[in-house]
Each structure stands twice: as C-alpha cells, then as structure tokens.
Amino acid sequence: MPDDDALLAGLRRHFGFEAFRGKQRDVIATVLAGDSALAIFPTGEGKSLCYQLPALMLDGLTIVLSPLIALMQDQVDALRQRGIPATFINSSIDRATRERRLEDAVRGDVKLLYVTPERFRVPGFVERITEARIALLAVDEAHCVSQWGHDFRPDYARVGAIRERLGSPPVLALTATATPAVQRDVLDRLGAPNATTFHTGIERANLFLGVHPVANDEDKVDRIVERANEIGGPGIVYFALIRNLLEFEVELKRRGLEPLIYHGDLAPDERRGMQQRFMTMANPLILATNAFGMGVDKADIRFILHHQIPRTLEAYYQEVGRAGRDGRGSLCELLFCDEDVLIQKEFTEWANPGRDFVESVVHVLEQNRHRWPVMDVQDLRETLLIKNRRDGRVDTALNLLETAGCTRGVFGRGTFELVRAPDRDEIDSWIDDDKRERDLQHLLEMARYATAPGCRKSVLHEHFGFEPLVDGCGACDACVDGNAWLATHLPVDERQPIEGAGRRPEDGLARGDWIDIRHHGTGMVTQVFREGRRTRIEVELASTMRRRKFDLARIHWRRVEE
Q: Looking at the structure, do residues 474 and 551 belong to the same domain, yes or no?
C-alpha cells in the first residue's frame, strides 16, 4: 500500500488538493489494503474521492454503481477534465458506444466505469465485464441497498449477488445518512458484514433547522414567498405531490417569482434542462419533488423549504444536507401541517402492496397480452382501481415483477413483455410483512421531529445513533431565534435576490381596471392600497353591484383584457 507521502502526491497531482478532509485518508488506506468499508460522510464532505483516488492506484478496474444517469455524466466529465480515464455505460448512449466503452474497460484503458445496478440485468454484460481485472466495487448512495433505507430501489437489493458475480472484490459503500440498523443491513446485503465503518457524524453547524406550523396552502404560499424574499437564492422548495408543485408554480408567479420546476412527469430532456439552468443561474428558485437533488453539486444553496413532510428523517436530512455546502449560513425549514402526514401515510400504503394486489396485476397483464405495446400504467390503474386512480401500488407491483426478472422492456414504451408469471410462493417472498410497519414507524419518527419541543438537531443525533446534544445545538428554532441566527450567519447585505423575481401581476393595477376573482366573478377596481409588497384592493362586483375589499395575496384572480 502507498505510504502517506505517495497518497498526498497522488491527491495533489490528480485532484489539486493539498490535504485530505475528515476521514478520507483512513477510508482510502483501508481500500488500498484490499479491505471493504462503509463511509458515511455528510453531503459535500468528499465521498467520491474515497474511491476515485484508490482507482488510480489499484491494479485493475473500479466499477462504480451510481443511481442516476445525469450524476454519472457529471462525474465522468469532471474526471476527464483532470485527465483521469473514466467512462460510463447507460441507456443514454447508443449500442455501438456502449459496446466500445465496455471493450475499453475490459482492455484496461479506463480506470473507473460508472453503471447503474440495472445494467447487470442486460444480457451479456456480466459475462463480458468479468473478463476485466476488477479491483474495487464502489456503491454510491448505499442506503438504497437496504429496505430500511429511505430511498429503496429494487435493483440495489441485488448488489450482493452482483458483487458475487464479479468475483467478490472489495466493496466501498458510500452514503450521507444511515441509522445503525441501515448500516448493518447494507453490509449484510453486500456480503461484507465485517467491513470497517467510517462515520464523520451529521453535524452541520452552518445549517439552521426550523419547523413552521401552517394551517393551509395559503399559509404555505405566504411563507415560501416571505422566505424567498428575505433570504434570496439559490433555493429549493420540495413537494411530495406534483399537482401541488404545479399549483404553487402559478401562485408564485402571481407573487412576482419565476421558479424553475423539476418533477417526474417532465420529459428527460426537460429535467436535464431544468437542472442545468439551476446549476448555471446565479440565484435560482426551483420547485421540485424528491427526484431532484441527488448529484446536484451547487455549493451556495441558501435555503431549502419542505412544502410537505418527508416520509423519513433519513430522507429529510439527505435533502437539507444539500444546503450550505460552501460553509455559509443556510435555512432549512419544514412547513408542517397535520394533514400532510396523511398524504405520506398514503404513499407508504402504496409502497407496500399485498400479495393479492400483485396477483391481480399479473392476471390483468396475462389477459391483455395483445395490448402490451399500447398499454400504460394508467390503463392498469383504471382496470384495477375503483376510487383513487393516483394509487401507486401498480407502479410498485411492476417494479417487483421487473426486479424478479418476470418482465422485460419498459412498460408504457411499447417494449414491455411478461416473460413468466410468478406463483404465490414467489410473490410471498417479495412481500416483507414487517416493511409496512417499519415504514409507518419511520413516518411517525418524522412527525415527532416536527412536533418535538426540544432541540431538533438533538433529535437527529439520537436517530442516527449519536449522543443527544445536552446543551442544545444553537442552530435550530427550539434553541435560538431564527432571524437573529440568520442575521449573524447570513447578513442581509450578503443576500442575493432570487433570479427572475421582478414585475408582479398586481404591479400597475389601477382604479378602473376589470379583474376576474375566483368564486366571486368579475368586478371593477375602485381603490388600490399598497403596503410594501402587499396589495389590497376594493372591487365593485358585477354580480351584486356591491363593493368588497380583497388581499391579492389570498385570492385567485386575473386581469380581464379589454
């Protein structure tokens, strides 16, 4: 194994850094000694270096399992700019390019190969890649390996089998958040129960954590606009439901903001475009579902707001950890409404379909073989579900079938095929009777965090297996005043306005203008009262000929063009 001088020389030559951070050196030394390890570092603490530097010093190929295609592209581009031989293989490139890159990896012309776990289900890939000398398997976002984890992805559950097929090379698992139970489960599933664990803790002193109780969506809009105007960008607002995201996009535009949006219903090129704009704009605001953020390396995110409560504390801390990676003060605030817990409970039920439901999905697929090329998820929902057509159990059942190798192709894309129907015993082996209860327990822990009277960071410390903060953290709304903390850690004169904030719909509104107000109809403006950024109006309604006053921030309205 190289000595410290050689490690530092490699660090400077390949990455331009003068010293290792935190426990990077210890993890790298373990990997270079041929041992497996689990590294749990907060977002922005340099997890990737722990396998990138060893890859250059080991004799052979390092395979990196990465969850997102866009993340692979960014990391490979950055490595190539440093002159490091790295590549990726995924569905975003044509077959000829995939085969050429696979040949390069087998021949030894690249040191790092990025792939998704799903790549190992492609016929012939494993047989070809095992011809290479595989020195290390790196598993990014390793919490996905565990069903206890907050972002369970079916193919990650097979990583242990993948490692065996690769000849059981040393494995380095990396994540930002993992409870002791998740840590044990990840290592067991990877076939490395005795691997050394390196945990740098979860403390991020520059993040202020707060919970703001709200009664309804109007309160949420008010708070989002208030925080965006007070703090400035860049900022992220996370949503659990796409329909809420789209509604709030309209509301925020009415308030003079021009947010970006990111969600699963956008086409892939639209999502890439939104992410690229977020990365290149100076002070953007983006409204996103939890699909956004993994691999987003924007160091100066000043605030992260959660429109709805996440399902787990792991998910919440993973998302807020994207703020303040430049070390400056950042606000992380959860807008908490009791009713939102019911939304996440519904998601939990969808993620845990029973055997009978999975059998029903299989039956419908068998009975509609002739329609596979034109069927989509909505067709299955309309056949199987009577009330809630948003029910996500269909998606979960399709994922289970795909992971078990019962299907091929992509459902809804014209390439789907049911290659075999599982029997009852096999379906039972997929259904973890305890998982639903664990998921509900995680949601309860998240709700307790939102309603706890004491230090919020202390709650997190206990959850992740650390000692509670006896004297408090000094950086949450239970310990100090949030505005005072922000004034010290993010002075007003250093804050930058949200990019795109400008003229509001009510700007220029004057006496004599006609407007249409939802639930009240059209009317003529008779008075306009402006107080700072708030605008109130008096309107003579056409339906009653009576005058009423309205706060434009609390109604849905539009101008009536002449």
A: no
